[in-house]
Here is the input.
Amino acid sequence: MACLLAASAGLLAACATVPRSEVVSVEESKDCVVLLHGLNRSWRAMRPMAESLQLAGFTTANVDYPSQLGPVEEIAPLAVGMGLMECRAMGAERIHFVTHSLGGILLRYENEREPITDLGRVVMLGPPNQGSEVVDIARDWPGMTLFGGSAGLQLGTDENSIPSQLGPVDFELGVIAGTGSLNPWMSAMLPEADDGKVTVAATRVDGMDDFLVVGRSHRYITRSDIVFRNTESFLRTGHFLDIDKNLSLTCTSLSDDPAQPAPTCF
Here is the structure.
């Protein structure tokens, strides 16, 4: 089916370079969750999240897509389309998404290009919704094209970047940002609290419904019990857990805009 999807998108990539997915059906579940990993990662990065959601009663479609082999404009319809196709084939009535990093930008881009009529709720983990200064600084370094691919180089903060060209979200969205950087070198390139690749402030986007900050790095935010339970909560209720907010450390809001939810820090 991946090859047919690639053909329908008008792409010439070989079957080995187009998405595939690991689908796990949960009996009597009418909700399916598509998982989209980030740049230079694979479906394995999202497998712990997928397993957590399966235990919570969700059918999952964990998509493995070639994040380095094309620009966002080519990757988005393939990755998002694969997930939608798998969930629809399982008879899902609502299709939710859980994305990491680049995966969130792919979903935003594709939903603007072709609105997803059966889209449910979305949780984005460490999304560069306002781009990343790391890309601005490092884009001309030797090897960056090989390391980040075309899509990675589109994630800067300049007006021509993909995040800068996307509008407010029009779906139910919860954003989880991290502050547990394991990369002081990259953090030194970032102006504010960050997860090692994206600042907390840059994960925000107009239209989001809830916001949470956890002490996890960009790489490992997909493998956290706090993130697991709050992702499940948002997919079910549209809100993160009050118990975690009440037990959280004091965290100062990064925005003076009262319309933007204040973050919760752990």
